[in-house]
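User: What would this chain look like folded?
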Amino acid sequence: MTGLIMMTLTTLFWTGTAFYGLMDTSYWWLIGIFPGACIFFIYYAIELFKASKHLPMPSTAEQEDAKKRGKLFGIICAAEGMGIAVGVNVVRILHHPELQVPMIALAVGLHFFPLAKVFKRKMDYYIGLWTTAIALLAIFLMLDHEVTKSTMFAFTGIGLALATTYYGVNMIFVTRRAFAS
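Assistant: Here's the prediction, encoded as structure tokens.
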């Protein structure tokens, strides 16, 4: 449930980033699917919350394992936040403020790799690879003056909104399978 709420918020953030890049064009409608996915995520999170009341209590060992993973998750997210702060400040010091959004995306992409290990999920490696590739490509294209700032916002925003939407949809399928068994 918490994961779906996080995917909702991050999908909305990246959709807003894409919208900022597309607002001067007639292509802004391309991102319309993402708010719809977010509404579905919230609906499913509420349904999951209701259903979770009927689940048996986890064992003490499962609770301890969840607590340990939760602590590691917090550490990884704190490191991601520090990576964002450092990355954004580095590009500002280097007089490339246009790279702030791709640097945020890079920190987001990199945080998926340790998450994959903590939660034992292959999907995190794929999402991390996708997100990191989008960020690095946006940085390269901006430094090479191949795209405008607006195009970079749209590219990065859509790329990461696709990642977070896929992640949320995958969470739903995994949860449905778990409830079915």
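The chain has a mean pLDDT of 92. If you want, I can go into more detail on any region.
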